[in-house]
Amino acid sequence: xxxxxxxxxxxxxxxxxxxxxxxxxxxxxxxxxxxxxxxxxxxxxxxxxxxxxxxxxxxxxxxxxxxxxxxxxxxxxxxxxxxxxxxxxxxxxxxxxxxxxxxxxxxxxxxxxxxxxxxxxxxxxxxxxxxxxxxxxxxxxxxxxxxxxxxxxxxxxxxxxxxxxxxxxxxxxxxxxxxxxxxxxxxxxxxxxxxxxxxxxxxxxxxxxxxxxxxxxxxxxxxxxxxxxxxxxxxxxxxxxxxxxxxxxxxxxxxxxxxxxxxxxxxxxxxxxxxxxxxxxxxxxxxxxxxxxxxxxxxxxxxxxxxxxxxxxxxxxxxxxxxxxxxxxxxxxxxxxxxxxxxxxxxxxxxxxxxxxxxxxxxxxxxxxxxxxxxxxxxxxxxxxxxxxxxxxxxxxxxxxxxxxxx
Length: 407
Prior knowledge:
Low-confidence stretches: none
Mean pLDDT: 85
Shape: elongated
Strand content: 5-15%
Order of helices and strands: HHHHHHHHHHHEHHEEHEEEHE
Number of strands: 7
Radius of gyration: 26 Å
């Protein structure tokens, strides 16, 4: 049975998709916004496809690493289309470019499932349609871009496109994840600054297409450079919060997630209760002493995979250093916490780690973990209270003989 949040998101997404299809179809039939210039439509499709092909690898890596908000640099061509094409045709431009991205890039990325792609396409179409419609209704559509009215048209188009797009995406993220912080819903100030930069390039692309079409190729080089910079920025952000031996969040990254969840729990009240599992790999020093530290690192990576596979999709797993791991479980009841902790303990106990070395094969099994459990607000009102309680419970589990769960 679907939960209420999932039903609300599906209803919202389907509504947006229906409105996008109906509005585009009606505008095509009525000719709303004036005649289309097929040359401009073809030029923008060609430029958008060419730019996507040249940055395909970069975009795929960015999608693998991105969170809910994602700066899509193809908005360069959308803004140019908004000021040069009628509403229905700029919506079709968004549809064509998004479909190309799906076929060539996003369908290979697990963080970009088909239902989210369809919803994002509808939001892009509606944003383009809204911005172009405002220009058509205000009489600014088709205004020469090298005049003051043309500058007003560009600024108005960029503002409407950005506001509508941010609103639609933020509503979708909220319904999909129940996140409420401004950064989660609308991106950071830096994210929005990058979006503004792409819109500025879109304005320059529109001016070039009207005044001297050959100059539009000079927009592509800075756009590719901006795209690569976005990838490097994301890589640095991921590296700063990732433990290199296990691929899990490091202490700083996990603690940042926990702080956000604690704030959400306070806003939601009882429905926002969360729990923490403090996990310690028993007798890990023996593994290092017997097989060496490189084999120990491989064992830690295998344990990290076992823990991640035993918790829920929305739970956050981190490494606290050494052989200690920690799990944040948001919105969970007491019985479920213990069930997950026991599932983790069993999964690690069933591991059979086979490691190839220069001297042959090393097989490590018989592993076990001790787990301390604490839940908010039972363990105290603050995050530190919960962490201290989980740590104390972990020590009780170890003192009681290890390979067990203590609360």
